[in-house]
Structures are given as C-alpha cells and as structure tokens.
C-alpha cells in the first residue's frame, strides 16, 4: 500500500526535447505533431493525496538544483515544472473524496458501498492517468527501466479504457491505484535504477492484472488454472494479484530481491495449436545480451521507437552493420526485456549452423506460437484460425503465414493487448543463400507490412548483404540504423567497459592495456571479445601480459582483416601446422563444421568412436580445449560445440582467409559410416515404452523425459541426418550394405518410430529420397534396396498423419494397410501379429493418387509439370500460383501474386526457369521461378477473360486463349502480339497449347470441340466427341497425340494426323475435369477437379484406353445401405466394421471403461471421423483408415450394402489400448 506520510517526489526531465513550445512532449519531434494524442490534459483525482503534488513540485525543484545534466535540457525542465504546478492547482480545485475511498475495503464490498464505487469509477483511475502523463517526463534512467515504464503505462491505459469498476474487482483496482501512486513517490524514483529487477516484475504483474480485469469486465464465463487447480471464482484470482502487487511494493521499499512468482492466470479454453510447425531452439538466448551499461543510447532509441504512439512511426527497424558490431547482442537484450516485463513479443533467430532446418519456412508459424504463449487473447484468435486445418498449420508459405498467423489475429484482438507487440528477427543474413530469404524480404518490404497495425513493431538485424540492402532501401516503412555509423566515442566507451570487465583481476593488465585493446578493436565487439579470450590464461607457459603483448603485435595481413589475423593466430598457437595434432585438428573441425545440427562434446565423441579409422578414436577435447576463444561448448560441455560467431565459420570455409587451417567439407564418409552404425546398433521396438495406443504423443505427459532418457543426442542426430551424410559420400559397397540392413528390415520401422517421437516424420521422406539418389549412382546389385527406399517414401507419404499423431499407430494403423504386393509388405508383415485385417477392399499396390497437394484456399484451375518432372505449378481462384516439389509433396517458396482476378491457366517454360499465367483480369503474365517475381509488364490485348496460356518449345513465344473466342500469339522478349488473332471457335476458348516443334497450336472451346492450327489457319475439321465443354488440351511429348479434359468428367486422347480419338474415353472423375497434363516421359498424368486438390496419377495405357487408376477417385460416391441395430450375438460393447459378428473388436470394454451404461456415447462407441480416425467415446485413438479406403466404408450400424464392395475390417485379432505392443514381434 502507498504510504500516507508526507514525502518529496522526484521527477526527471526529458533530455531530448528542444521544442520551446510548452506542454508538447519531446516525443513529438520524432513524428507529426499530435498534441491531443501525445499530451492530453492531466486529469487529477479527488482521491489522490493533495500533498502528493506539493511533494512532486518540491522534489522537482530540488532535483533541478542538484543535477548535472547539459543545458540543453532546461526547456524540458520548465515544461515538467509547469506540469507539476498545473497538477497541484487542479488538485486544489477538486472536491473532497468520498469517505468510502479513504479506507481500502475488502474484495467484495457491501451492496450500498458497491453502488457508490461504481458511480465513482473514474476517480479511482485518476492516479493511472496522472502516471501516464508524468512518466513521459522521466529521463536519465536505465533503458531497461524505461522499457518497464512503457509496459506500466500500457497496462494503465488498458485499464483506463476498458475497466468497469464493480464490487468484484474494486479491491484489486484499489491496489492498482496504490501501486501507481507508489511509483510516483520520491524513494521509488530515486532508487529506480538499482531496483530495476523489481520494477520489471511489477510491470509484468500489472500487465497480467490488466488483462484479467479487462477479461472479467467483459463478463465472460471462464475457468482459470492456478497451479494444478481449476478456479472459476474471479475473487481468488484477484486476491492473488493483490498479494503479489503488495509483496512487490514491499520488496521495493526494503531494497531486497525475493523470488515472487508472477502468474498469468490465463482463461482456460480449448485452444489446441498442436501440429503448427515450430523451429525449436530459434528463440531468445539471454547469454548474448549486452553487458549492462553498454549500448545505452542505441537501446534507448529502440525503446523509444517501440513505445512511440505516433501512428506514422515505421513499423520495421532494420539494425545492420558488419560482422562483430554487436547486432545480436542488442536484439537479445531487447528480447530479454520483453520477457522480463511481460510485454507481448517474440524473438526468432537464424543461425549459420542451423541452415539444414530450413528455418525460413517456419519463421512465422514459430513467431505466432510464441506470441500465443505470451498472450492469451492472441492465442485465442490464432486458435480460431488454425483449428481443424492441418494444411494451414504446417504450411511453409510465409505469405499465408503472415496473413493468417500474424495480421489476422492481431486485427481480431484490438484493445486486448498490453503495450506494443514486438517481433525480433535476428541474423537474417545467416538464413542461407539469397533464395532462402527472398520471400521474407519481399514480405517485409510489401504494402502489407507498411500497413501493419500501429501497435506492431519488427526489429530486424543483419549484415548489409547486397540482396538485403536492395530490398530495404526501397521501403519507406523501414527505419534503417547502422551500427557502423555509431560515433567512435560511444563505441570506445562501450568496448572499454566490456574489456575492463572481461580482463578484470588479471595481473599486469591495467587501464593502459585496456585502452590499447580498445584502440585496436576498431569498434568491433567481436574482436574485443576474442581479444579478451586470447589474453586470459588458457594455455600453459604464458602469462596474461605475454598474451597481451602477442596480441598487440598482430597486424592485419594482406588479404586478411585484423579479425581473421586474430583467428589465425589463435589456431596457430594451439595447433601446430604439421604433425599429429594438425591432422586431428582437421578431422575434429571437419566433424564440427559438417554436422548438420550442433552437438555437445559428449555426442561428438560418441559419433567419433564409430569412425571407420581407429586412429580417429580419440577425445575431441584434445583439440577443442585450445579453441575456447572461438568455440562455444568447450568450457560448458553440456552446450553444443559451435562457433561463437558466424565470422569464424566463414573464415574456416574460405582457403584464402584461413590458409592451412582451411576445412574441406567435400567428403562425409566418416560421418556417414558412424551415423549409419549408430542407427543400426541402437534401434529397438517401442523404445520409449509407450503404454497405450489410445493416446496421441501430445497426451503422454512425460514423453519429453522419456525421449531424453531413451534417445541420446548422438542417436537422435543420427536418425535425422544419416541419409544426408550418405548422399554426400561417393558410392561405397560397405555403406550400401549398411543402408540395406536398415531399409530392408524391421529397423526401418524402429527408425520411423524415433522420427515420430521427435516430431520429425517428414524427415523420413527427404532421407529416403537422398538414399534413392545415392543408390542410383551405384550398381544394379541394390535394386531391391532401391525399391524398398521407394516403398518407404510411399509408406511415409500415405501414413504420415497417424505416425505424426501417435507413435504406436505406426504399427497399429500403418502396417495393416500396406499394399500386399509391395516389397516392404514382404519384409515387415511376417512380424505383424494380432492386428486389424482388411476382409474386403484392401490395396494390392500403392494408391495411384500418390500425393494430394493442399494449400490453395479456393478451387485449383490449372496445373503444369516442369520440364524435368520434379515440380508442378498450380493456379487457383485465390488469385495465386504455387510451385510444388513432386517428390516431397511440399510447396516451394511463397505464392506468386500479382493478378487481380482468378487465375485460369499456368505453365512452365521449356527451360523451367519461367512460368506463364493467364487470368480473368484479361492479362497474360510471365514470372521468374527462382526469384518468384513478375518479369516485365502484363501482356494485354484480349477483350475478355484469358482462359489458357502456354509456351512454345523454344520459350520465345506464348499462346493464349480467351472468352473473346480468339487465340493469340505473343513475343516473350518484346511483350507484343504476333500477327492477328486466330478465329474460328463459336464460343469461348478454354484451353490452348503449342506442339513440341512449335509449329502447331491446339485449342479447346466451350463449343465442345478441339481444333489444331498451323501458320494462323485451322487444319482440318474440329475434333469432336466430348459431350460437354472442353476444359483442357495439350500435345504429347512426341507431338502425335493430344490429351483433352472436359466438363463431361472424362479425359480423351486424340491422334493428331488422323483427327480421331484413340481408344476409349478415360472415365472416373465425379466432378468436371478442370485441367489435365502429361509428364515429359508420358508415365504420369496430372489432373485437377473442382475439389481444390491436385492429383498425380500413373499414366494409363493408351493402347486399351482403360484407366483403372482413376477408378479410385470415382469411388468417392457412397453405396446405399440399410441400417439396423448392431449384429446379434456379440457380447459386451460390440464394435464391428463388417457384417460378420466374428470380426468384432475384442476387449472392447477397455475402450469404453468408465463410460456410464446410460451414456449416449455408448450408442456408437467407435466412429470413423472425417480425419480418418476411428475414435472411442472419449476421443481415444483406435485405428486410422487411409483415404483410399474410407469411401465407401462399412459403418458400425451397416448390415446390408448394395452393391457389394464396401471396405470391411476384421478386428477379431486386433490388440489395442494397453495391449497394443503385442501386435509386433521384433526379430522374427
């Protein structure tokens, strides 16, 4: 509680304003003048002690006489003094406070007193308003304090704007008032720097309090969690906040630091964000923060930018500078302040040694999840967006991430966040090659970023690489700040403090030596850090003074910077240039540099012990102990071994810079052998002893502890990256044998088990793709291994959903449905026992629809293969194009955007470097594939919607068709039309294409015909046969055939010369075919319908004209069935997906245990859900059904199917729940 005795109050004047106009805060100088927003009149409460303002004025004038600030602050002092005097006069004019407020009351007051409280709600909030006005005048404080005050101001403003005073929260708001009065007391402000830790806790608690009050005042029903208990009584939560605020004020008065737990009493809602892609380890690292007392000006400038209320303030601040300037230290300092004060924000860091994780694809999903963890309102808004949308949760499209995960939630929770949201993106330059950040840069410099909400800030740090400089220089909403431009005297002061602290206590190192080091640093913090490490006694036979003398003798050599020279010297001192130690250096550092994820020393040693050459079996510490100045994880062995700064990586990998200490990473044979052997020797069935198949991995409470206990660092690493190391090695028979031992045995399943536990099932596809490419380099003796790798890829693609959700279902739901004619089935099925079986309708080969590519938000209208068959481009009514990786089934980069209406047609150029698109906006556009940008201006001429486009074989011409009934040809380079339009169709043209030799053009139309053109004239008669409009046409690679799709739901093949249809029509689709195209080798056909999906199909045989592959798509229609009660004769709770009672699930009581006999859930205790899961009455995971087998599927109530052909399951031998582990006999 605030103390009532008379006190003086100290207020600091701003030292930045030079504006002589009274009552205009200094912040106004940074943007357009907005006095009403920035300097509102000071409303003063009658409830506030009149002596408060007298004490403030007295303190202000006394402080002014004793301080030693520069004269430049005198004008601001006058403003502060006038504000104090005005406030005091306002107090004198107020009426006396009602007595009910002179003595704090309990949490729940009497009814009559409550009425009085509600009527005078504004008076209790007046100290908050006063605080908001005066806090702007406080200066000469630590930037950390300034940051905490910003949060306190935001919390008070939220309460002022939204709090409704009633009897339930009056006691809490009364305590809030006391806190803000306390914060304006003399002793509080005089000790504000020394008690900044407690102040940050007060700001964090006040932020939580404000959110609680606002939530409560909206009168929403809610539960909260305190510890392990669920509380519905808001009074309990309010009491906890009152106690914490009181304890923190007392702690501040006592000048002590106690561990007071700050709890965010979040409203409990069903907010499941599981499945959202997340980049682990990319967050805040508090070991990187600035040394206290350094970078104060820069930190203050950034804090001012964050706190600014100017609606025109740039939303993005780009902090750049050469390597070693301290960019990351500043970023992590701001991030730690955000965390300490309870401000809403997130920190995402790129790292040179984490590029294999492709963090650029996870950046905004990770930031969104972090923001959701920090703020309950954001979490609720995000959950509403991603709920039941797995494709959106896992998208790597950063544009979609930006709009759906960041902008949309923020717009939905306006007024529910305390303070400005701050997102930090550190070290963007370390994302990888330029292409890794192309879409991020385009996003940050877009109009969408310029129009971010006024309470959103992005702090971006990077080196000034050319691609980043080009992007940022053109963006008006980006404020660029260079650390290279920091005045020398400030850099000198900060580095001097840093070096003094780093060398404190070393003999013979005084202020003169420190100053010499500072002078030599040239403003580089990284060099100063390395210098301190160099001087400290870290090697035998040398004193710190001798190390210092050696350091001072260094000079930048030709071709090397001083930092490179220092790196070279550190290596030279610890590692001689010849002999055993030098060979060990190259081996150890090659291992460190080539690991695709940093590992602690113990894990490095475990891997090294398996290296094929026994001479390499030694402790890595023999080398690493000499490299602590440049490597982390050497002193603290629990941390990963990694360069302390990215510049050391660059130094090692450049032979011109590192000379004899250059590390060659061209051969990964040692790592390939070791990781393969570790995987082979350490895999086992049910490695984490999971008890029940009913639970998702996320529901196993101690799963992380089990993983840490059972899956070591080196085993986890080996499972994730063995295949990548194999691919970087030349083909080797011994290695190939090890690969066969894994993919050709049950070890493949145990490997997948670990990937499932680690949440990395998707890595299995990329790993086996590496294996496949590597085996193709070898000989034919490993064709079976190659087939197993291909089967493994298809197994993961088809069963990634259950494996990612629940590890036991790798066995329970994956193995039973493996097609019987596959090689993988022959390897693993003999070991499967007591499992579900398919009685009717099983698969003999892998489903023809190998992949479903999902991401478009509206119907897919057009698709096309790249010339090498590895990529697909798709166009959609969502006005975007997307490029897909065929093998991995994932989107590449962000959508191509520019068309203003629905996209109708897309296609690759013959060299695969360009994409052409047509749209209902009447234009044709050309795109650069790698850059993801439009080339030149749109091609204009059509008078109605463009419906179809295509490149000629030489890539120099484009053909387009339109609803204006014409076909036009364009010159790509000149962007102009060639000749006159081709006319003849009697209705709108729907599809066009060039022949492979570029001499002919084919077109399809709403008039149900296909036509062929040569030299601007039609050849022969129209090709007729379709009974509805033609939607898609295209030549075969040999130019002798044409493939057409139609609204009659069929695909047809035509002979060009004869003008006749080949074979029978290809039937199967249940919706209009919107597009059809053949792959370059004619082995695949891709087709799209109005389902928003793209299907990839094995090409049919054109000799007989029958496409049995398409029958699987046709099976989406339901067969008729009659219903009755469950089959008779089944005891207990019958769960049966077959007409035969003997096929019922055994031990079904286990599934329904605890459900009341009269519970409605027992009416249908197990049901096939839309996501493919058969779940129990409380959501238990019983079995997952692949998409190809779901329709038609025998229901638990079905007794008759007309016609026969429904998928039926035999569950009579199936173990489940606590018995699931009996389904697999390892080692058989």
TrEMBL record:
- Ranges for the region named Disordered are 1-45
Q: Does the keyword Repeat apply?
A: yes
* Ranges of residues in domain NACHT: 315-464
Swiss-Prot/TrEMBL keywords: Repeat, WD repeat
What ranges does the record list as Basic residues composition bias? 1-12
Xref: Gene3D superfamilies = P-loop containing nucleotide triphosphate hydrolases, YVTN repeat-like/Quinoprotein amine dehydrogenase
The family database entries (SUPFAM superfamilies) matched by this protein are listed as:
P-loop containing nucleoside triphosphate hydrolases (SSF52540), WD40 repeat-like (SSF50978)
Segments annotated as WD repeats: 853-894, 896-937, 939-980, 982-1014, 1023-1064, 1066-1098
Question: Ranges of Low complexity compositional bias?
Answer: 25-37
Name recorded for this polypeptide: NACHT domain-containing protein
Q: Could you tell me which species this protein originates from?
A: Pisolithus microcarpus 441
**Source organism lineage?**
Eukaryota, Fungi, Dikarya, Basidiomycota, Agaricomycotina
């Amino acid at each position: 509680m605030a103390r009532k005795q008379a006190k003086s109050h100290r207020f600091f004047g701003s030292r930045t304003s030079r504006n002589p106009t009274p009552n205009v805060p200094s912040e106004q100088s940074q943007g357009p003048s907005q006095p009403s927003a920035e300097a509102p009149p000071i409303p003063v409460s009658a409830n506030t002690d009149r002596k408060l303002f007298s004490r403030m004025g007295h303190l202000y004038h006394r402080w002014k006489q004793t301080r030693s600030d520069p004269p430049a602050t005198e004008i601001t002092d006058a403003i502060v003094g006038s504000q104090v005097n005005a406030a005091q006069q306002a107090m004198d004019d107020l009426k006396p406070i009602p007595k009910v407020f002179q003595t704090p009351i309990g949490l729940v007051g009497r009814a009559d007193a409550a009425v009085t409280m509600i009527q005078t709600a504004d008076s209790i909030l007046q100290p908050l308003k006063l605080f908001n006005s005066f806090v702007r005048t406080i200066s000469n404080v630590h930037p950390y304090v300034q940051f905490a005050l910003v949060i306190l101001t935001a919390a008070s403003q939220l309460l002022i704007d939204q709090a409704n005073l009633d009897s339930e929260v009056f006691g809490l708001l009364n305590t809030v008032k006391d806190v803000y009065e306390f914060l304006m007391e003399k002793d509080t402000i005089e000790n504000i720097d020394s008690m900044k830790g407690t102040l940050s806790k007060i700001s964090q608690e006040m932020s939580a309090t404000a959110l609680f009050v606002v939530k409560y005042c909206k009168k929403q029903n809610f539960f909260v969690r305190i510890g392990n208990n669920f509380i519905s009584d808001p009074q309990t939560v309010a009491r906890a906040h009152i106690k914490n605020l009181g304890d923190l004020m007392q702690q501040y008065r006592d000048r002590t630091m106690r561990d007071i737990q700050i709890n965010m009493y979040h409203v409990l809602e069903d907010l499941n964000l599981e499945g959202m892609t997340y980049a682990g380890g990319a967050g805040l690292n508090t070991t990187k923060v600035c040394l206290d007392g350094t970078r104060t000006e820069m930190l203050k400038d950034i804090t001012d930018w964050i706190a600014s209320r100017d609606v025109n303030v740039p939303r993005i601040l780009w902090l750049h500078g050469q390597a070693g300037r301290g960019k990351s230290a500043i970023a992590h300092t701001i991030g730690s302040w955000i965390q300490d004060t309870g401000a809403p924000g997130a920190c995402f860091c790129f790292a040179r040694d984490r590029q294999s994780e492709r963090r650029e694809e996870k950046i905004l999903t990770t930031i969104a999840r972090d923001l959701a963890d920090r703020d309950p309102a954001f979490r609720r808004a995000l959950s509403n967006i991603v709920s039941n949308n797995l494709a959106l949760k896992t998208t790597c499209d950063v544009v979609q991430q930006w709009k759906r995960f960041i902008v949309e939630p923020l717009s939905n929770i306006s007024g529910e966040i305390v303070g400005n949201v701050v997102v930090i993106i550190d070290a963007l330059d370390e994302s990888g090659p330029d292409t890794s950040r192309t879409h991020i840069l385009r996003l940050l410099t877009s109009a969408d970023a310029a129009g971010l909400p006024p309470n959103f800030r992005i702090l971006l740090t990077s080196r000034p690489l050319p691609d980043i400089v080009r992007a940022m220089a053109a963006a008006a909403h980006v404020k660029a700040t260079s650390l290279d431009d920091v005045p020398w005297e400030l850099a000198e002061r900060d580095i001097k403090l840093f070096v003094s602290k780093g060398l404190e206590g070393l003999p013979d190192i005084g202020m003169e030596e420190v100053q010499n080091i500072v002078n030599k640093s040239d403003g580089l913090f990284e060099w100063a850090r390395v210098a301190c490490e160099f001087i400290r006694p870290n090697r035998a036979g040398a004193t710190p003074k001798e190390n210092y003398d050696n350091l001072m003798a260094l000079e930048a050599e030709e071709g090397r910077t001083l930092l490179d020279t220092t790196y070279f010297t550190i290596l030279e001192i610890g590692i001689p240039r010849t002999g055993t130690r030098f060979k060990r250096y190259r081996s150890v550092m090659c291992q460190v540099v080539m690991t695709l994820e940093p590992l602690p020393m113990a894990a490095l040693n475990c891997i090294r012990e398996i290296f094929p050459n026994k001479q390499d079996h030694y402790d890595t510490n023999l080398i690493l102990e000499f490299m602590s100045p440049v490597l982390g994880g050497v002193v603290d062995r629990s941390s990963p071994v990694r360069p302390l700064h990215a510049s050391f990586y660059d130094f090692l990998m450049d032979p011109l810079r590192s000379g004899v200490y250059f590390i060659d990473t061209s051969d990964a044979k040692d790592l390939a052998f070791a990781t393969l052997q570790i995987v082979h020797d350490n895999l086992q069935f049910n490695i984490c002893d999971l008890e029940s198949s009913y639970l998702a991995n996320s529901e196993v409470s101690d799963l992380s502890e089990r993983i840490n206990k059972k899956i070591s660092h080196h085993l986890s690493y080996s499972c994730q990256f063995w295949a990548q190391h194999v691919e970087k090695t030349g083909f080797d028979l011994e290695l190939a044998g090890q690969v066969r031992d894994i993919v050709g045995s049950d070890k493949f399943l145990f490997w997948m088990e670990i990937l499932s536990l680690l949440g990395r099932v998707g890595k299995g596809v990329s790993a086996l793709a590496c294996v496949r490419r590597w085996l193709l380099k070898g000989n034919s003796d490993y064709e079976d291994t190659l087939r197993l790798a291909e089967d493994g890829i298809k197994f993961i693609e088809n069963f990634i959903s259950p494996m990612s959700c629940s590890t036991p279902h790798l066995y329970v739901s994956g193995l039973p449905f493996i097609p019987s004619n596959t090689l993988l089935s022959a390897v693993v099925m003999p070991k499967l026992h007591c499992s579900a079986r398919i009685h009717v309708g099983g698969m003999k080969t892998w489903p023809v629809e190998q992949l479903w590519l999902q991401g478009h938000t509206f119907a897919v209208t057009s698709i096309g293969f790249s010339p090498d068959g590895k990529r697909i481009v798709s166009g959609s009514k969502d006005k975007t194009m997307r490029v897909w990786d065929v093998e991995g089934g994932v989107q590449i980069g962000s959508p191509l955007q520019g068309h203003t209406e629905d996209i109708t047609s897309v296609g690759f150029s013959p060299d695969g470097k360009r994409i052409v698109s047509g749209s209902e906006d009447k234009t044709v556009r050309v795109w650069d594939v790698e850059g993801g940008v439009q080339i030149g201006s749109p091609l204009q001429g059509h008078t109605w919607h463009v419906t179809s486009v295509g490149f000629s074989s030489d890539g120099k011409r484009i053909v387009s068709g339109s609803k204006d009934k014409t076909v036009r040809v364009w010159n790509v380079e000149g962007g102009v039309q060639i000749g006159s339009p081709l006319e003849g169709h009697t209705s709108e043209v729907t599809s066009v294409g060039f022949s492979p030799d570029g001499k002919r053009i084919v077109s399809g139309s709403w008039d149900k015909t296909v036509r062929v053109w040569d030299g601007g004239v039609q050849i022969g008669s129209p090709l007729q046969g379709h009974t509805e409009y033609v939607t898609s046409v295209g030549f075969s690679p040999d130019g002798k055939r044409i493939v057409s799709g139609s609204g009659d739901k069929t695909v047809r093949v035509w002979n060009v010369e004869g003008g006749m249809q080949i074979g029978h029509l290809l039937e199967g689709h249940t919706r209009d075919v919107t597009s059809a195209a053949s792959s370059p080798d004619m082995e695949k056909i891709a087709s799209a319908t109005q389902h928003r999906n793209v299907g990839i199909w094995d090409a049919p045989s054109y000799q007989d004209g029958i496409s049995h592959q398409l029958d699987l798509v046709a099976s989406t229609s339901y067969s008729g069935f009659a219903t009755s009660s469950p089959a008779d004769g089944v005891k207990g709770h019958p769960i049966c997906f077959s007409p035969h009672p003997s096929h019922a699930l055994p031990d079904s009581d286990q599934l329904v245990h605890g459900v009341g006999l009269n519970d409605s859930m027992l009416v249908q205790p197990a049901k096939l859900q839309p996501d493919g899961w058969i779940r129990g009455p409380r959501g238990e995971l019983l079995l997952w059904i692949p998409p190809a087998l779901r329709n038609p599927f025998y229901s638990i109530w079905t007794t008759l199917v007309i016609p026969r052909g429904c998928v039926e399951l035999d569950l009579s031998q199936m173990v489940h729940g606590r018995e699931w582990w009996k389904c697999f006999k390892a080692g058989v």
